[in-house]
Design goal:
Oligomer: single chain
Number of domains: 2
CATH superfamily of the largest domain: MFS general substrate transporter like domains
Largest sheet: none
CATH class of the largest domain: Mainly Alpha
Number of strands: 0
CATH topology of the largest domain: Growth Hormone, Chain: A
Helix content: over 70%
Distance between the termini: 32 Å
Shape: globular
CATH architecture of the largest domain: Up-down Bundle
C-alpha cells in the first residue's frame, strides 16, 4: 500500500469514525434535547425508529444518486461536501433550537440531519468500487471498517463521559469533524480516479444483488440481537453493571484486531468466502457465549464473535462493490446500508414495544444470532457451490 492510498484510506476511516460518533452523541443527548423542546420521554424511542426508517429509504436513494454522480470525476465528492455542510449545520442547530420549546422545529431539524447524513454511507464504497485497483480495495475497505470499529469501541466510554456535559460543545465538535472529513472526500475521489487502472477485469458475480441483500439482512439482524440485546445480560451473569462499560467494547476489540489479517486473507480467498467463513465462525462463537460458564470464556467468545463480524462486514463491503460492478456500486452498497438500518429499526422496535421485558421472548432470542448467521452462511455457501 503506497502513501497516497494510505492517505485516502485514512480519509475514509475518519469519515466513518466521525459519522458513527455523531450518531452516538445524538443518541446520548436526544432525551435531554427532546425534553427541552417539549417532547415527552415516551416519544424518544419512536423518534429513533423514524430515524432508521429514513435511513432505510435515503441510504438506497443516495446510493443510486452516487452511481449517477460518479460518472463525472469530482462531481460526487463536491456534492457530498455540500450535502454534508447542510447536515453539519442541522446537527449544530439541534442543541440551539431545543431550548426554544418548539417540538415541530426540533423534529424538522432532526429530519434534515437524518436525511442529509445518509450522504456519508454509500458513496465511499462507490468510489472504492469504481476507481480503486484490485490491490487497493482491501486496504481501503479495511481502513473504512477500522473507523467503524474504533467508534464502536469508544461509544460506551462516551456515554459515561458526556452524560453530564453541555451538549453544545460535543455537537459543535462532531459537526466540524464530519464536515472536514466529508470535504476531504473530494480530494479522495480525484486521487482514486487519477490512479485508477486503465482497464479492470470484470469480476465473477456468483449471486444476484437481491439474494445478497437477504444475506445482509440476516447477518445484520443477528448482530443487532447479539450485541445490543444479548451481550449485556450475558456479562451480567458474572459481572456488575458498573463493569459493562469495560466489557462491552471487547466485541469491538476483536473486530479491530481482525482487520489487518483480514486484509491479507480477503485478497487471497475473496470476499464471498470470507463472508461465509465469518458467518460460520460467528454463529459458533455467539452460540458458545450463551453457554459460557465463567467470565473468561465469555470474554473469549465475545472477542471471537467481534472478529467474525469483522470478516462478515469486510466480505459484505467487498461483495457489494463486486456485485455492483460497474455502474451499480451505489445501488448495491446503498441497499446493504438500508438492510443495516432495517435491522437496527427492528431492534429498537423490540425495545419500544417492551418485548425485551418478556422473559420467554428474550430466552428464545438467545439462539437467534446463531440461527441468523448460520442461515446466512448456508444461503451463501449453497449459491457459491451452485455457481
Amino acid at each position: 500500500m503506497n502513501t497516497s492510498t494510505l492517505r485516502t484510506g485514512i480519509v475514509f476511516a475518519l469519515l466513518q469514525l466521525f459519522f458513527t460518533l455523531t450518531w452516538t452523541v445524538y443518541v446520548i443527548y436526544l432525551p435531554q434535547l427532546a425534553a427541552e423542546a417539549g417532547i415527552a420521554k415516551s416519544w424518544i424511542v419512536w423518534i429513533l425508529i423514524a430515524d432508521q426508517l429514513v435511513f432505510l429509504v435515503t441510504d438506497w436513494l443516495m446510493g443510486v444518486k452516487a452511481d449517477r454522480s460518479a460518472r463525472i470525476v469530482g462531481k460526487l465528492g463536491s456534492q457530498i461536501g455540500l450535502i454534508t455542510l447542510i447536515s453539519a449545520l442541522a446537527f449544530l442547530a439541534m442543541p440551539l433550537a431545543a431550548p426554544n420549546g418548539s417540538p415541530l422545529l426540533f423534529l424538522a431539524i432532526t429530519f434534515v440531519w437524518t436525511v442529509t447524513s445518509s450522504a456519508l454511507r454509500a458513496p465511499p464504497l462507490v468510489l472504492i468500487g469504481k476507481h480503486a485497483g484490485i490491490g487497493e480495495k482491501p486496504w481501503l475497505s479495511g481502513l473504512w471498517l477500522f473507523g467503524l470499529g474504533i467508534a464502536g469501541a469508544i461509544a460506551p466510554y462516551l456515554t459515561g463521559v458526556l452524560r453530564d456535559t453541555d451538549p453544545r460543545l460535543p455537537f459543535a465538535l462532531a459537526s466540524i469533524a464530519v464536515a472536514l472529513a466529508a470535504w476531504a472526500m473530494a480530494w479522495a475521489e480525484r486521487h482514486l480516479a487519477a490512479s485508477a487502472p486503465a482497464t479492470t477485469e470484470a469480476p465473477e458475480k456468483p449471486l444476484s444483488i437481491p439474494y445478497f441483500l437477504i444475506i445482509v439482512a440476516l447477518a445484520a439482524i443477528g448482530y443487532q440481537i447479539h450485541f445490543s440485546l444479548n451481550s449485556a445480560p450475558q456479562y451480567l451473569r458474572y459481572a456488575t453493571p458498573a463493569e459493562l462499560s469495560q466489557l462491552m467494547p471487547l466485541f469491538w476489540v476483536g473486530f479491530n484486531l481482525a482487520m489487518l489479517p483480514l486484509t491479507w486473507i480477503i485478497r487471497r480467498q475473496g470476499d464471498f468466502k470470507v463472508l461465509a467463513a465469518g458467518a460460520v465462525i460467528g454463529a459458533v462463537a455467539v452460540l458458545y457465549s450463551t453457554q459460557a460458564g465463567a467470565l473468561g470464556p465469555l470474554i473469549t467468545a465475545q472477542i471471537i464473535a467481534g472478529a467474525a463480524w469483522a470478516a462478515v462486514m469486510f466480505g459484505m463491503f467487498g461483495a457489494a462493490t463486486t456485485l455492483g460492478h460497474t455502474g451499480r456500486e451505489g445501488f448495491s452498497a446503498g441497499g446493504m446500508h438500508s438492510m443495516f438500518a432495517l435491522a437496527t429499526m427492528l431492534r429498537i422496535l423490540v425495545i419500544a414495544t417492551q418485548l425485551n421485558q418478556d422473559k420467554a421472548l428474550m430466552q428464545s432470542l438467545t439462539w437467534a444470532p446463531a440461527l441468523c448467521w448460520g442461515v446466512a452462511a448456508l444461503l451463501l455457501i449453497a449459491r457459491l457451490r451452485r455457481a
